[in-house]
Amino acid sequence: MRLTWKRDGLASLFVVVAAAIYAVWVTETGLTGMSTRALGAAAFVLGWAACTSNKAEMAIVYGADRARGRPSMPYVMAASILGAVALVAGIIALVTASEAMLATMVITMGALWVIATLRHAFAPDAKAGDEIPAPLAKAA
Questions:
Q1: Residue 78 to residue 119: CA distance in whole angstroms
Q2: 86-112 pLDDT tens trace
């Protein structure tokens, strides 16, 4: 697999913007009038956009497109756990205005971006022999 602008560049842009606005806010160097909920909403939307920047990749990871080579189970588990933690922390941050949950969401979003980008950079491309045949291909 290789890094692409559509998948990795766009996701990187969204995550960097979310981390930057959080860093500026938490250090009180800017955005001082922004509430925890408003920042949480902005970071949540940017994280969601990063996650869905390539829907085809999500289909590969969660099994809807097995012909393109599904990642290892440890990767799927780590991505699922980090994604769930980010989602739950984001919802709690929005509902309760918790700065701790906002920090948790941004940190897990960054961690998820790191493991996804490393996988895209270093995972081998699916080989022709690795493809799972369609169920009706054997019957034909």
A1: 12
A2: 999 999 999 999 999 999 999 999 999
* Residues of the domain holding 102: 5-126
Which has the closest alpha carbon to 117: 1, 34, 8? 8
CA distance 31 to 75: 36
Q: Give how many domains the chain has, as a whole number.
A: 1
The token pair at 113 is 């971006």
Q: Per the domain annotation, does 85 fall within a domain?
A: yes
Question: Is 88 inside a domain boundary?
Answer: yes
39 vs 18: CA distance, rounded Å: 9
Reported residue count of the chain is 140
Residues with Cβ within 8 Å of 10's Cβ and at least 6 positions away in sequence, in order, are 49, 50, 53, 54
Closest C-alpha to 23, from 101, 102, 87, 96: 102
What type of residue is 102? L
